[in-house]
Amino acid sequence: MGKLEEPLNGTLAMSFSALGLCDGLLKTVEEQGYTTPTEIQREAIPAVLSQRDVMAVAQTGTGKTAGFVLPVVQRLSGGPSPQSKTVRALIITPTRELAAQVEKSVQNYSRDMNIRSAAAFGGVRIEPQIAQLQGGLDVLVATPGRLIDLYNQQAVNFEQLEILVLDEADRMLDLGFIDDIRRIQTLLPSQRQTLMFSATFSKAIKSLAQGMLNNPLLIEVTAANSTVDSIKQKIHPVDKARKSELLLHLINKKKWHQVLVFTRTKKGADSLVVQLEDSGVSAASIHANRTQHARTLALDGFRSGNVKVLVATDLASRGIDVNQLSCVVNFDMPYLAEDYVHRIGRTGRAGSAGLAVSFFSEDEAKQLQSIERVIGRKFELETIPGFAPSKKVAASPFDDEEYGNFEADPQPRGRGKPKRRRSR
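Below the sequence we write its predicted structure tokens.
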């Protein structure tokens, strides 16, 4: 496999019509209210249409899904119909929510074309998914575990596969799917176009790309692991025991009507939901221990406004896409610094303004420092009146008399090698 090439240079096209999309897709894009492509779309769409392998690094919320869905749909249009159990394009995602979201985008963009698509993920019965594959599909969006299940049951084969897309590749590595991805790779034809999209660009991602892509074109439209400029980021120091109280205070004072809150653990998410509900705030949780039906209901309730606060773990951070979500709260600082980027990327999407608020207790100083290193910036702590910590934050990275300093430690505390999870 070839090395990654340098990013594209030159003048960027300023309209979708200049990117090589067909009239049918241009009409669909216009009807959905999009007039100017984002940077990742300007770079990726012509490259995918030219049938190049692509390694694209882009922040969450920058329109990367359309960056690969639009050209993939165009490439498949007018081609041969898929045979029974075959797929022409395979899109692999790390979570169920993201699989459903991407497949919905495929449906939206291909509505005037003869494109058959479906999503396959765990937490629901496999039989309907097997039935959808009986007639063949142009596009299958799947999580790794369920895809392998389908293959083992001889419900899918890849004889007609033309395009492979790995969406949120870094998250798949974080969740321990590398063995599944390697196995899936052995099942696919070597002659194919492969696209890899990731929000971060680690050594592990580079290694994966060099092993799966053929002479790929590197598109890096933002600094690796950086955060969207339109997101205002705040860090509030507070005692760990008062985080719930502070959240309720801000919800009421700031009149937040829709808040996505991230906790470190599933137990913590459920506990916070109980506290919020007891205080009269409608809330629901979404994490790996909840059934797919419960996760779907929670997300639908949040999108409709019936649920004011959605409490999620990092597993769901890549699959939550809510239009005009104005606020994300890190109730707990993430163990992995890269997860901070993905969490706050749920707000400030497509150039809209967003707010990311993080609660910082004294035991999370090393996590905060790791985040600062990853995103390349220092935070100023902003204490909310009435919620000042009961004692000095003993391990703060700031040169400030109130908080002191601490020694550098590049490794987040409390997280070793990620446990292997299967999105069945």
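The first helix runs from residue 23 to 31.
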